[in-house]
Amino acid sequence: MNKRNILITGGAGFIGSHVVRLFVNKYPNYRIVNLDVLTYAGNLANLKDIENAPNYIFEKADICDFDNMLRIFEKYRIDSVIHLAAESHVDRSIKDPFSFARTNVMGTLSLLEAARGSWLSQPQSPKRKTQTSNLFYHISTDEVYGELKFDNTLFTEETKYDPHSPYSASKASSDHFVRAYKDTYNLPIVISNCSNNYGSYQFPEKLIPLFINNIRNNKPLPVYGKGENVRDWLYVEDHARAIDTIFHKGKSGETYNIGGFNEWKNIDLIKVIIRTVDKLLGREEGASEKLITYVTDRAGHDLRYAIDSSKLKNELGWEPSLQFEEGIEKTVRWYLENQDWLDNVTSGDYQKYYEKMYG
Ligand code: NAD
Ligand code: DAU
């Protein structure tokens, strides 16, 4: 197997940590450089099991720092990038849109420029060919497509962009920049747009870990609006496998949608979570439904997301591996068994972990 030097950004976050773990374990010949600035959402404790692996390196850095990105590309002779670093929570983007434009747009641009400078730096025409191993793989979201009605339609790779939140607008903008670098500079790129992920190590501000934690602690469950919005849920390890497949087999310049064919109305999903937590805690199943509290709806709340991932299945052979019932039980069990992790990330104590590990 070829040696490669792969930069994974945002590898201390939820999805990034699963991608880093998969690549470090599966590809001992690859050098994996995990670059993360460690915001509130980044936690090195997510990667404890692989932190001493010989093919793993951690770099604490901000993707917006272009000079440092260039330095890191040169230092590790980076040949490809899997770019996950982002501000990722819609509610935060409503309160603080600037930080989303900064990280998601300017940060992506800074990485694209570093890749261009490093891979296309010779004084030839901008259309000079890169090496076959060069790839800028940008991880995006289905939210760039806007919202679907309550019908049978699905987002495909051809669906027109129509973002509604500052988060999805910033992700859409970054997708456009990535495609512009293909068209203008011939940078080898690939993009995937994924639906909602669930699983271990997700920061407990997102629906599933927040609600598991609140049920456990008998705290109110704030359901936005009437709880009728629909999301398409995918187990995070299946997303990581899809990223592996696209990274190795995807066609340069293409976009792939990733989804679970697994739509749930929020309130129905919440009731499944409640029953699962109640069961695992030995409470009467459904008893915690009393915690459901309907609150003011999220501004610009998209009605429904649902992904058609048949291109990825037909062309590259990827399919979700886990049934939702199994995935959600595994997930609930993980959060209940990892109360220390939850306590650390909610108290901010995990920030001290970095100091201890890396000085
Ligand atoms: P997350 O918020 O859990 O993690 C983001 C990571 O990026 C953190 O480790 C954080 O420290 C790091 N980061 C933030 N700003 C940075 C900066 N300026 N420089 C370096 N690192 C920085 O996010 P996630 O849920 O794991 O999402 C990862 C990616 O996948 C994002 O690009 C997101 O848009 C996309 N995505 C997420 C989902 C989902 O359901 N969570 C679905 C589809 C796509
Ligand atoms: O679709 C992919 C996207 O999924 C990713 O790009 C985002 O990074 C990720 O955060 C996620 O976005 P959502 O906004 O769909 O996820 P969230 O967990 O915040 O909310 C899921 C649904 O639950 C949504 O309809 C809003 C609702 N909700 C959420 C929270 C946090 C509530 O009703 N109450 C809540 O407290």
What is the strand and helix layout of this fold?
Blueprint: E1 4-9, H1 14-26, E2 30-36, E3 56-60, H2 66-75, E4 80-83, H3 90-95, H4 97-119, E5 135-141, H5 166-185, E6 189-194, E7 196-198, H6 207-216, E8 221-224, E9 230-235, H7 236-249, E10 255-258, E11 263-265, H8 266-280, E12 292-295, H9 310-316, H10 324-337, H11 339-347, H12 350-358
Parallel strand pairs: 1-2, 1-4, 2-3, 4-5, 5-6, 6-10, 7-9, 8-12
Antiparallel strand pairs: 9-11
Bound molecules: nicotinamide-adenine-dinucleotide and 2'deoxy-thymidine-5'-diphospho-alpha-D-glucose.
Residues 9-10, 12-16, 36-39, 41-42, 62-64, 84-86, 88, 103, 107, 139, 141, 171, 194, 196-197, 203 line the site of nicotinamide-adenine-dinucleotide (NAD).
Uncertain regions: pLDDT < 50 for 5+ in a row? none
Which strand-content bin applies to the residues?
15-25%
The amount of helix comes to 40-55%
End-to-end Cα distance: 35 Å
The arrangement of helices and strands along the chain is EHEEHEHHEHEEHEEHEEHEHHHH
DSSP E strands, number: 12
Arithmetic mean of pLDDT: 94
Ions, cofactors, ligands: which are bound? nicotinamide-adenine-dinucleotide, 2'deoxy-thymidine-5'-diphospho-alpha-D-glucose
Number of helices: 12
Whole-number radius of gyration?
Answer: 20 Å
Q: What general form does the structure show?
A: globular
SS-derived structural category: alpha/beta
Biggest sheet, spatial arrangement of strands: 3-2-1-4-5-6-10
Largest sheet, described in full?
7 strands, parallel
